């Protein structure tokens, strides 16, 4: 756990009392769950004050399996680093996903490492290393494993998971303006009156240069298979520049990337910076794109998040540490076979053997041999 996160967690737990496993931390700004909240228009709005807040919901109905997911909406400003943590009662495995307002996945976490303070299970989740690029409405979504979520809050493998109680804790944002109400059948956005909360001086500790700077990253074109695109050139990771962070000043030899962020997997970087698109838009600022050896990252097909760490030189010439996390690409299932088929057969539709099997069937009984023969002639 980083010094930055320890400081942050201590501040949001000021005055909190951990009474039992079923009543995890009670935090200033505590709220109750508002159902239904399993669709974007029905997202429960969180007004996150400087001292942080918590919600104490129920995932499904205790003692049974569920396909429930809880969606929470909050506003954040550019430069904010939300700290969102799920502390369960220990009876189920959580998945936490951070979305932007367009439904794009920004970050995702299955199992927090190290464990969340107050957790009784290593299967609880946490997102605390993603820097917001633009002001707007963002969404934190909680659902039980083995469910996984795709863009637009869509389940990929919608198998039910175990149910149970949990506490969602959120802090680290400076905007306390309520997110707009999303209306499915009406494009008009209705805004509520803003609620202003004074900023807590304790959060000034995050400007301390001894704390790692949180950079925004994107993990490109890879999903859990060494044979996927990226084996030859490595897993591409884009480290994005910002108003107070020049990605081109990063010490490339210091870079580590993988499941925990400490893996010595660095291969190389592009010689020149590249303006990486964010939400399909370029900002005109050069970013750094580097490549990491898949076999050295410690990532498996079950991982949902990649973490990068390294050193950079700030505007005052000081060498500082930085870190950042982002979601790995999600599996896209075949359009011709539904999710349930892939789940039953344990098949990743992008798997090489599966593609060869489909190709063989397409060419008939001896299709594979015919295809290989034609390939040799090409």
Structure description:
There is one protein chain. The protein is mainly beta. It has three domains: 3-206, Jelly Rolls, CATH 2.60.120; 213-327, Immunoglobulin-like; 339-377, no CATH class. 10% of the residues lie in helices and 28% in strands. It is built from four helices and 21 strands. The strands form five sheets. Strands 1, 3, 4, 7, 10 and 13 form a six-stranded mixed β-sheet that branches. It has a five-stranded mixed β-sheet with strand order 2-6-11-8-9, with no helix packed on it. A four-stranded mixed β-sheet has the order 14-21-20-17, with no helix packed on it. A hairpin with a 4-residue loop joins strand 8 (94-100) and strand 9 (105-109). Helix 3 crosses helix 4. The longest helix has 11 residues, at 352-362. The chain is globular and about 55 Å long. Mean pLDDT is 76; it is low at 1-28, 187-208, 226-230, 331-335 and 361-378.
Q: Which band does the percent of strand residues land in?
A: 25-35%
CATH architecture of the largest domain: Sandwich
C-alpha end-to-end distance: 54 Å
CATH class of the largest domain: Mainly Beta
Estimate nothing, just give the exact number of structural domains.
Answer: 3
Written as H for each helix and E for each strand, in order along the chain, the element string is HEEEEEEEEEEEEEEEEEEEEEHHH
Taking the sheet with the most strands, its summary is:
6 strands, mixed
- Class by alpha and beta content: mainly beta
In angstroms, what is the radius of gyration? 22 Å
Overall 3D form? globular
The tally of strands reads: 21
What percentage of residues falls in helices of 4 or more residues? 10-25%
Please state the average pLDDT score: 76
Q: Ranges with pLDDT <50 over ≥5 residues?
A: 1-28, 187-208, 226-230, 331-335, 361-378
In DSSP terms, counting alpha (H) and pi (I) runs of 4 or more, how many helices? Answer: 4
């Amino acid at each position: 756990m980083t010094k930055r996160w320890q400081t942050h967690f201590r501040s949001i737990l000021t005055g909190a009392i951990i009474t039992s496993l079923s009543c995890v931390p009670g935090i200033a700004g505590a709220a109750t769950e508002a159902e239904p909240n399993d669709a974007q228009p029905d997202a429960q709005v969180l007004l996150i004050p400087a001292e942080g807040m918590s919600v104490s919901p129920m995932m499904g109905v205790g003692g049974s399996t569920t396909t429930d997911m809880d969606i929470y909406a909050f506003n954040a400003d550019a430069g904010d680093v939300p700290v969102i943590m799920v502390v369960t009662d220990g009876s189920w495995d959580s998945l936490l996903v951070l979305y932007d307002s367009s439904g794009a996945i920004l970050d995702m976490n299955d199992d927090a490492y190290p464990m969340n303070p107050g957790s009784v299970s290593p299967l609880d989740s946490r997102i605390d290393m993603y820097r917001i690029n633009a002001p707007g409405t963002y969404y934190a979504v909680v659902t039980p494993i083995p469910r996984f979520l795709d863009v637009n809050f869509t389940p990929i493998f919608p198998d039910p998971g175990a149910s149970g109680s949990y506490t969602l804790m959120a802090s680290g944002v400076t905007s306390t303006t309520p997110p707009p109400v999303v209306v499915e059948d009406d494009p008009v956005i209705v805004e509520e009156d803003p609620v202003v909360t004074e900023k807590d001086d304790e959060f000034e500790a995050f400007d301390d240069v001894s704390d790692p700077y949180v950079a925004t990253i994107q993990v490109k074109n890879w999903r859990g298979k060494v044979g996927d695109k990226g084996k030859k050139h490595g897993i591409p990771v884009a480290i994005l520049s910002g108003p107070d962070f020049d990605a081109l000043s990063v010490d490339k030899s210091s870079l580590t990337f993988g499941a925990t962020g400490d893996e010595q997997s660095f291969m190389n970087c592009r010689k020149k910076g590249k303006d990486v698109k964010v939400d399909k838009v370029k900002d005109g600022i050069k970013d750094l794109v580097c490549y990491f050896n898949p076999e050295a990252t410690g990532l498996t097909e079950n991982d949902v998040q990649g973490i990068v760490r390294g050193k950079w030189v700030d505007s005052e010439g000081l060498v500082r540490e930085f870190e950042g996390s982002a979601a790995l690409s999600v599996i896209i299932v075949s359009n011709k076979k539904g999710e349930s088929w892939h789940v039953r057969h344990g098949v990743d539709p992008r798997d090489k053997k599966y593609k060869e099997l489909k190709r063989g069937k397409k060419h008939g009984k001896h299709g594979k041999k015919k295809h290989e023969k034609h390939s040799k002639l090409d």
